[in-house]
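Obj.: predict assembly geometry.
Materials: sequence records (below).
Method: joint structure prediction, all chains together.
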Amino acid sequence: MKSKGYINYLKRKRNYAIKVFLTQFFLIILFLILWQFLTDKKIIDSFLLSSPKKVYNTIISLYKDNNLFNHIFITFYEIIISFIIGNILGLLISSILWFNKFLSKVFDPFLTIINSLPKVAFGPLIIVCFGANINSIIIMSLLISLIISIISITNAFSSSDKNKIKLLQSFGANKYQIYKYLILPGNKNKIIETFKLNISMCFVGTIMGELLVSKEGIGYLIIYGSQIFNMNLVITGVVLLIILTIILYIIVNYFEKISRN
Amino acid sequence: MNNLLEVKNLSKTYYTKEKEIKALDNISFKINKDDYIAIIGPSGSGKSTLLSLLSGNEKETCGNIIKKDNLKIGYMFQSDLLFEWLTVYENCLLGLKISNDLTKENISNVIRLLKKYDLYEFKDNYPKSLSGGMRQRVALIRTLVIKPDILLLDEPFSKLDYQNRLIVSSDVINIIKNEKISLILVTHDINEAIRMCDRIIVFSKRPSVIKKEYIIKNDDYQKYYDMIWNDLYEK
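Observations (raw structure tokens):
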């Protein structure tokens, strides 16, 4: 039985959340109205900065040409593939580096250097090696997400409580058992955090890859739009990216909730 | 044979890039069955190092540790080191899982210990919902389920407040005596050493040698307290 005070508290909390959401929604609507108004009044140039109506029309025409979902799907597919490969490889390599201190010492400076390099510089090299196709986009995305994922998971592994390792050793645990009972489950939250960070890294990598080499995808819409100076297409691309980000955010939150429970 | 373990001329030196640190110097003593030994000394005097050597977590630089055949050693640390992602029951099974010893008999021993020490109803709880004293009891049971002959306690109550220290330390010594396990307690609390143990080994400053050894024969705690205090702090 909930007390009156508690019910009031819950109500206040809910009302507050609704207020925050409505304000966010209102801000977006205000932005769109202002944008449309300023272009209608020719205060800003709709040829350069487009307008909500034009973006809407572009989306509709993309839809009518059966291209809209194709572009979204291709980008989504590239993100998901690089996300899955990046995380599996990241976890695998971090685990190998945890098992083998020597390898970890050897690779440490390489990882740091590769991490600090701007990956886009590898673009031409990747295209030459993997071809002007989807593979290059995935490799570009991996290059960005994998290194960060290895560094953060390896750091998490090596900062595990030394006394807990000692405790397991006092039970006679071997290295594999320490990994199984302590290192992996003890760092679950940090691994999930890295996965979460990786979603945005894969996003950045995929779009960067698409800007360099692609025939389809949202990045392609943006680069193609800029080449033919069709700013409606460029801004439509950005809007689609925002929608995709929201979808990915919802998916990640959903999986995070499942894993917490 | 009553003799469980013998430490002979044990020394341990740590090497770092800058220097070498001699932690223990030529330590010798014996542990018999039903011995309750406290090791007391200034901080940094190598008391925990000795436990690490006895448990086999570290290797000695010189000397020997002679153990009775199949001697099992349990080790409890300064903090309870419970795994937060495992329930109380799963935490208690950890040692058995690692030694691949999850027999029916051992599992019922875990249940018996949990019931006996008032933790059974919390067996499906996660450690974060337990009080400091209960956490220590779970940590103790986790160590006891592997049926150790000797239990090493490394200042296990140092993280508790004064009241809880008294309660938990008397709980722990009762449990250890009930389960007929020998004890080596490392502490810097003279009172705790005298209350819990019947042999007290006093370590000198690093590099530690055994400065003195006391057998607590009667209840004249104040006398022993003064003598040990003098050993530790008088120049």
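Conclusions so far: Residues 32 and 141 of chain B are 22 Å apart (CA to CA).
To do: check interface contacts against the pulldown list.
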